[in-house]
Specification:
alpha+beta, 20 helices, about 575 residues, 5-stranded mixed sheet, about 15% strand
Length: about 575
């Protein structure tokens, strides 16, 4: 296979990156890359702003291909694992950067000023032409610099800037590491943040000498130290590395955690919140919770402690509360939770086949793709860990119910969110089971009915209508009984021509264990249904889809009714049960 070292011309580079030659020439020499960027600013934590230069899609695609090729080349060349640079590296993060400096007597932080702007066009071109890992012809090195630079410098916002900056900074890293070892210091770099730490008392007497030596090396390498951000941190004060406290455990600043809790409280109460004075989204808040949780997991791992669904850390419980709010209280669409993942494939296929009959559940767009007006819960590992929602089986649905019922040994989040917001949940949650009630308590539906203690009146409704309201916005839905059967699972709704379809000479079987030489299971069957939905008869699915529509109508009408008080007067619109736009 062709390698970077084999590239001799501009056309050779285009072929190597799998870019049409004419397209590369057109962008570089006719359009001019300096005209292919958009500029905007993002606010920094310290109140300042960072200027971002984002390439348009056509140039961005080329930069991505260049970055991928450079990452691959770096991996093949580096041999021994590099533990100095932690930004823009696979399996590296601010956590791996900070852990090197955990529980140290002294921590020294040095910041490089205008880091990306320090990599000018000539420096980028010279690196690829002269570095022993590349030694590219000047024509090729020039084209790489043209692709990568904006107004003669590496721009923040281009996919190729991180890897190129790391490659060039590698030379500086090794020279600084040599000096750090001389003074018995550990050293890491996270982009423009250089961190040194030690337990050696003598460093205090040597710090001026060290700083002078390292300043000269940094200046010689073409960088400048931001003197305002230089700081030496002692063990008896809070030591921070790339935003993380490293005194004993690696942790976020308490202020960060308190701010996150306050944001969540604002969201729960008013349906909206802000970050740095600007409206923020649900995804931004989840990102903060996820970041906090990553640190909890890391500390548990190094201390040999492991939380689980039944024993969550106090901060993890805040994330648990947030996840319930996101999925079961403020979800922007009606949410369907099934026993298994293949059930979702069947229901989506049925909806696509019957989309004209269910415009309230699905629409077909002009480009031929479909937009679902209902959602199906993706049972992720995260939901398993925080909410006990296992990825398969009916026990997950039992655990979901627990958060709705105050009598169950779980936080009653439904009651909490209703009280704090003075609103009802936005959409119905539909728990769907195979109809195996006849088999009794050993089947998932039997175990669920026993778990919730469904009264006789609601059992009659369920057996007659195949659906029933459990609590508030939580509904139970079962597969209808067809063809006089005492029990039906969702696969029974398919006609024989689908069920008897052979794949590679094998027949479909619903059992979990089977002879793979003769049969294929639900996973393969669901893929067959998904790929061929337009040719499948979904007539028997109409009962299920009708009931989903009925549940949505029932709950929607209930919400409309709650907009009026007992005297029939309209409630103030600010208290109406509307979807908060800030979380969509």
């Amino acid at each position: 296979m062709m390698e970077f070292n084999d590239i001799k011309t501009r056309n050779g580079l285009a072929d190597f990156l799998k870019i049409p030659r004419k397209q590369l020439s057109y962008l570089l020499y006719f359009k001019d890359v300096n005209n292919l960027y958009t500029s905007f600013e993002i606010r920094k934590k310290n109140g300042g702003s960072r200027k971002i230069k984002a390439p348009i899609e056509e140039l961005k695609d080329i930069q991505k291909k260049l970055a991928e090729a450079l990452y691959k080349h770096k991996k093949e060349k580096r041999g021994k694992k590099n533990n100095i640079s932690h930004a823009f590296e696979k399996d590296k993060s601010i956590i791996t950067n900070a852990k090197i400096h955990r529980n140290k007597r002294l921590v020294l932080n040095i910041d490089l000023e205008n880091y990306f702007e320090s990599f000018h066009f000539g420096r980028v071109r010279g690196f690829f032409a002269k570095n022993n890992d590349f030694l590219l012809p000047i024509e090729v090195a020039t084209v790489i610099a043209q692709i990568s630079c904006y107004e003669g410098k590496l721009p923040q916002g281009a996919p190729s800037s991180p890897i190129i900056s790391n490659l060039i900074s590698k030379i500086l890293d090794h020279k600084i590491m040599k000096i750090a070892k001389k003074y018995k210091l550990d050293y890491t770099r996270y982009a423009d943040d250089l961190t040194f730490s030690t337990n050696d008392k003598k460093f205090l007497d040597l710090q001026s000498e060290f700083y002078e030596e390292i300043s000269k090396e940094i200046k010689r390498a073409g960088f400048k130290i931001n003197e305002k951000k230089k700081r030496l941190q002692f063990r008896d004060s809070r030591q921070v590395v790339t935003g993380l406290v490293v005194n004993k455990k690696i942790n976020v600043n308490r202020v960060y955690y308190k701010e996150t809790r306050a944001m969540a409280h604002q969201l729960y109460k008013y349906g909206k919140f802000g970050i740095n004075g600007k409206p923020a989204t649900l995804n931004q808040l989840e990102g903060r919770f996820t970041f906090i949780n990553q640190l909890i997991w890391y500390n548990n791992k190094i201390n040999g402690e492991y939380s689980n669904f039944n024993y969550l850390h106090s901060r993890e419980l805040q994330y648990q509360k947030f996840l319930f709010y996101k999925y079961f209280f403020a979800h922007p669409k009606p949410l369907i939770v099934t026993e298994g993942k293949t059930d979702i494939a069947y229901l989506k296929s049925a909806l696509k086949s019957l989309y004209k009959e269910y415009p309230n559940l699905i629409t077909k767009k002009d480009d031929g793709t479909f937009e679902f007006k209902v959602s199906f819960l993706n049972k992720t590992k995260r939901l398993k860990y925080f909410l006990g929602i296992n990825q398969d089986g009916g026990s997950a649905l039992n655990n979901i119910y627990n958060y709705f019922d105050s009598k169950k040994p779980a936080p009653n989040y439904l009651s909490y969110f209703k009280q704090i917001s003075n609103n009802s949940p936005i959409n119905p949650i539909i728990l769907m089971f195979d109809n195996e009630i006849e088999s009794g308590k050993n089947k998932p539906i039997g175990k669920f009915l026993k778990h919730v203690g469904l009264d006789d009146g609601k059992k009659v409704i369920l057996e007659d209508k195949y659906m029933v309201n459990l609590i508030d916005n939580l509904f139970l839905l079962t597969v209808p009984l067809i063809d006089g059967k005492a029990e039906c699972d969702i696969e029974d709704l398919f006609k024989d021509d689908a069920l008897l379809h052979k794949i590679d000479g094998r027949e479909f079987i619903k059992k979990d264990k089977y002879d793979v030489s003769k049969y294929y299971g639900k996973e393969i069957f669901s893929r067959y249904i998904s790929d061929n939905y337009s040719n499948i008869n979904f007539k028997n699915f109409k009962s299920v889809l009708n009931n989903i529509s009925n549940i949505i109508d029932i709950y929607t009408h209930r919400l409309v009714d709650t907009e009026h008080d007992t005297e029939g007067k309209k409630i103030d619109e600010s208290n109406a049960n509307k979807v908060p736009l800030s979380i969509i």
